[in-house]
Every structure is written in structure tokens, then in C-alpha cells.
Amino acid sequence: MESYIKQILKENDMDFIKTLIENGIISLESFIKEALELDNDKYIYIVASYFFENSIAKLTDAIIAIKEAKYIYLYAKNVKGASITKLTDAIIETKNAEYIYQFARDVLYAPIEKLANALIELKDAKYIYFFAQEFENAPIEKLADALIETKNAEFIYYFARDVENAPIAKLIEALKDNQAYNYLILIALRNPQYLNLIADIIITSKNIDLIIELKNDVTNIDIKNRLQKAYDNLLLNYENSAEQKFAYLTKLYNDGNIEDILKQKDYFKELFTNSEEQPLTKKLQQNT
Q: pLDDT digits over 153-163, tens only?
């Protein structure tokens, strides 16, 4: 429901508004905010003419003094002749990433690079991504570097997916460092030119589930074969690993098959000779 102040302002009953302000019922600052929230320059000019001697410069200073990003943005967007330089500095000082981005997007003659640098300083992954996607003249490399520093894998992936001229190889490396392998698979499927690189990363991860996922999704036969070979090698190594042997030994022990354990003592030899951290093999060693 619209506030009564907005309703009075729409009726242009400024004498009544002035009476409310003079009697302390509302403050001039709150009235200015109400006018800005109408998001229409008509009401801003009414405020300027009635309370600021028809001076946009004086009203601009009053808006900046509020030090709230939302109202600085609304004012800059709607008022012709306002000092964009002063308002840009004011919006940056609020350190509000959302409204810095909206200021750049919606305010005529907003200094794009200066606002981009402000977002880079804030390290806000979401709005760095939005900014890079929105502006053709955005400093893409600098924005990508800042995004990588946030270690936010989700928006690093979105940046690689959606931003024109994104440095994809650099973003792939960042996702690798963050072990965000699922996002790497998504990039591989959208960008075949990076499939070999990402296949190498997935194979090096030694994650069987990821290797199978990528193998099932790709159509390139050579890469499918490489992934299958990596899977086969990992499976073979796992079957002969201490971890797998201990799992088998535990099952035999729990099933009461001590005789089978003794028959396969050579297979379990590694566990019996390195049993410091394996209570089960230590116990069996004492009993055999």
C-alpha cells in the first residue's frame, strides 16, 4: 500500500508537506526518500523547486548526504543535470555492489571502468559476473581475475559460460584449483576445444565417478577411450589397494572365516606388516 506521503506528493500539496516537516512529523530526508521511491523525475523536480530554491546542485548534495546507495542510484537515474561525477563517487563510497552495478547499467554517462574497479575492490562474485555480462566495454580480464580471487566456483563457471571473450583457460585453471570438477565437465561439454584439457584434469583427479560421467557424456571416441583406460587402471589399482584388501579382510573376519584369512595370508601380507593404524590386522597378527 502506498504511503500517505507519496499520495500527498502526487497531489502536489507541498504546503501540507512543509507543515509536516516544520512540525517534526516527518523529516526532510525521509520526504526526499519517499519522492525518490516514486522513481519519476517529475516528483524530484517538485522537491528541488520547493525546498532547494529550484537548484539541482543543492538537491544533489542533499541526496549524497543521505549516504544510502538506493537513493543515490534512483536520483542519478532520474534527474537530468545532476552531477554524475559526484554521484558516482558517492555510490562507490557506499560499497554496495548491487547498486554500483545498477548505477553502471541504468545511469546515462556512468563511468563504466571506474565502477568496474569499485566492484573489483569489493570482490563480489555475483555482481562481477553481472557486470562482465552486461557491458561490451567492461574490463573482462580484470573482472575475471577478481572473480577468481573470490574462489566462488558457481560464478566462475557462469562467467566462463556466459561472458563474451572470457579467458576460459584461466577460469578452467581456477575451477581445477577449487576442485570444482562438475563445473569443469559442464564447460567441456559446451566448449569442445577444451575437452582434452579438462579430460586430463578429470583423469588426474583419480575420481572414478567423474571419469565415468565424462566418458558417458562425450562423443569423441579418442577421449572416450582415454577415459575408459584411466577408469580400468584405477579400478585395477583399487582392487589391489590396502583399502580394498582391508575391506575384504574385515568382511571375512566379521563372517567368522578365520580359516580363509589364514589361507590368503600372502594376499593380506601388506596389512599384517603395516598394522599400526589397523586394529583388526593387529589383533589378527597377535592371534596367528
A: 999 999 999 99
**What is the rounded CA–CA span in Å between residue 171 and residue 168?**
5
* Cα 79 from Cα 198, distance rounded (Å): 50
Whether residue 103 is contained in a domain is answered as: no
Inter-residue contact 87 to 75 (CB < 8 Å): yes
Whole-structure pTM value: 0.75
Q: Are 78 and 45 in contact (CB under 8 A)?
A: no
The residue segments making up the domain with residue 84 are: 1-92
Retrieve residue 164's grid coordinates.
Answer: 563474451
Nearest Cα residue to 211 out of 188, 240, 245: 188
> Of 78, 138, 79, 129, which is closest to residue 104 (Cα–Cα)?
138
Query: Residue 98: inside a domain, yes or no?
Result: no
Same domain, 88 and 17: yes
Rounded CA separation 282/182 (Å): 40
User: Does one domain contain both 81 and 132?
Assistant: no
Q: Specify the 3-state DSSP secondary structure of 48.
A: helix
Closest CA to 67 of 87, 97, 39: 87
pLDDT digits (tens, 9 = 90+) for 237-282: 655 666 666 776 777 778 777 777 777 777 666 666 655 555 555 6
Q: CA 198 to CA 213: how far, in whole Å? A: 13
Is residue 169 within 8 A of residue 150, CB to CB? The reply is: no
50 lies in the same domain as 65: yes
Return d(Cα 123, Cα 145) in angstroms, integer.
Answer: 10
As a whole number of angstroms, the distance between CA 232 and CA 94 comes to 56
Domain count, the chain: 4
Q: Are 106 and 73 in contact (CB under 8 A)?
A: yes
